[in-house]
Amino acid sequence: xxLRHANSAQHALTINPRGTSPWGGSLFKGTVMSTIHxxxxxxxxxxxxxxxxxxxxxxxxxxxxPLSLLNRHVTGDWGDLCEEDKxxxxxxxxxxxxxxxCYELAGGKxxxxxxxxxxxxxxxxxxxx
Length: 129
Known about the structure:
alpha/beta
């Protein structure tokens, strides 16, 4: 499994065949291991995980790993959304609709979006949406 740059032929980050990331965690439904090896419970499948080049550069500048955002997203921590949007995500879990998270970091926002069919999860900047 590969974590790819969205809209790019180059691999941004790779995930080994056991499904663990280079940051030390699993990216599949079930148990997710964070970089400090804390176990969290996934609420849904992430599918193929992608990150745009802009989001990857921004996260590196902020000192935030993509896995930390994926862990938050997959456990139902939708981040900095209004209550109405958080409830829409909760309903989307049951109805198999698109899931959207927004995380406000010191330098700006980052979006994490999982498609309705759970085939792809993308980390991107608002300007790339």
